[in-house]
Design goal:
The protein has about 375 residues and is α/β, with parallel strands linked by helices. The chain contains 12 helices and 11 strands. About 45% of the residues lie in helices and about 20% in strands. The strands form 3 sheets. The chain has a 7-stranded mixed sheet with strand order 1-2-9-6-5-3-4, with helices on both faces. The structure holds nicotinamide-adenine-dinucleotide (NAD) and glycine. Glycine binds next to loops.
């Protein structure tokens, strides 16, 4: 009998849409890891040109023991392809393979593949089941969990999408070993995020272990993924559709999304933009009285040690403001930011424009 790997499991408690997140090394080859995946005759693996040669064969071999037919669709890689034409390739494949309402989609890849596959699953025949098999740190600690799915619009990041929960999230920690350093750092931004907004004990732990994380040390990665998923599960269970609390998960994202769309998608990685955006949001939090200068320095230092940029690009204040007004948290044209109201706790707040301009002047290249 093959030995079952020691697994961590985190539950997302959403009533009849609850599902498990399994976390362990080498899960792709373990048939019983897929027990919570829906039964069907057909499965479609959606992946990309980078991930397919690394992991699609292993996933397909396992799924072939559970599904009569397993098809694979390989998308072009990159944030720049998180768009309508690429989304349409998923619908083309589903229709081309005669997929029915029970067909299960498996998103094998990072957040881009996960978000697009989830959106396709939400809309094909008004909804088919899907499973997240995240292979980046960012996707394992954040994007595969909680059911946000989307594509980008040229005018705004993740603007077209749906809330649609997967049936299962399967975090195979071994896949992280092939991540390029820049991608690993991008994932660390979303790990670090959970500290100031929710759990300062976790922040202390990240500070003590950031070098081990950057070095891809397996037990450090396992803890980072598990604790991040636990926090995200707790937040999403309280506010699935972001009517309140869930917005705190967007700490750094208002500035970050402006960087991403302002520079052109893919120029900076999402996690890099979020890392730098958290530095800006920390400065704003200080100006609003939530944290002191020492805290801003501490957070900035950690973001830098994780290999992330801490100075924003020179888009110009007007352009930043214009881009940030398109953010999903904006109300009646007023930009709203996630700010730290005390270390370990966050809220959404508006800020005087003059204050935001000061932050941009302080934190961006001239
Ligand atoms: P990504 O999906 O572009 O993946 C990063 C790169 O790593 C890609 O080139 C990918 O092909 C490659 N890759 C993936 N797995 C690999 C592996 N194991 N080994 C080697 N290379 C690998 O980017 P990402 O950082 O995973 O995700 C970013 C996206 O996630 C953004 O579009 C962002 O908006 C979205 N996001 C969504 C949510 C959500 O809640 N849905 C949350 C955070 C971010
Ligand atoms: N990544 C933010 C959220 O899932 O709400």
């Amino acid at each position: 009998m093959p030995q079952t790997a020691l697994r961590d499991q985190v539950e997302i408690d959403l009533g009849d849409r609850s599902y498990p997140i399994l976390i362990a090394a080498d899960l792709l080859g373990e048939l019983d890891a897929f027990d919570a995946a829906p039964s069907a005759s057909t499965a479609l693996i959606v992946t990309n040109t980078t991930v397919a040669p690394l992991y699609a064969t292993a996933l397909k071999a396992t799924l072939a023991k559970r599904y009569h037919r397993v098809e694979t669709l390989v998308l072009p890689d990159g944030e720049v392809h998180k768009d309508w034409p690429t989304l349409n390739l998923i619908f083309d494949a589903l229709l081309g393979h005669g997929a029915d309402r029970k067909t299960v989609l498996f998103a094998l890849g990072g957040g881009v593949v996960g978000d697009m596959t989830g959106f396709a699953a939400a809309s094909y025949m008004r909804g088919v089941p899907f499973v997240q098999v995240p292979t980046t740190l960012l996707a394992q600690v954040d994007s595969s969990v909680g059911g946000k799915t989307a594509i980008n619009h040229p005018l705004g990041k993740n603007m077209i999408g749906a809330f649609y929960q997967p049936h299962l999230v399967l975090c195979d920690l071994a896949t992280l070993q092939t991540l390029p350093p820049r991608e690993l750092s991008a994932g660390l931004a979303e790990v670090i995020k959970y500290g100031p907004i929710y759990d300062m004990a976790f922040f202390d732990w990240i500070e003590a272990n950031v070098d081990a994380l950057v070095a891809l040390e397996p037990s450090a990665l396992a803890h980072a993924v598990k604790r991040s998923c636990e926090i995200k599960a707790e937040v999403v269970a309280q506010d699935e559709r972001e009517t309140g609390l869930r917005a705190i998960l967007n700490f750094g994202h208002t500035f970050g999304h402006a960087i991403e769309s302002g520079l052109g998608y893919g120029e900076w990685l999402h996690g890099e933009a979020v890392g730098c955006g958290m530095v800006m949001a920390a400065h704003l939090s200080q100006k609003l009285g939530g944290v002191d200068a020492a805290f801003v320095t501490r957070l900035t230092r950690l973001i830098q040690r994780a290999g992330l940029p801490i100075v924003g690009p020179a888009l110009g204040a007007e352009r930043y403001l214009e881009l940030m007004r398109i953010d999903k948290k904006s109300e009646a044209g007023e930009i709203r930011f996630v700010v730290i109201d005390q270390p370990g706790s966050a809220k959404v707040a508006a800020a005087p424009e003059a204050m935001v301009r000061e932050v941009l002047a302080q934190c961006c290249e001239a």
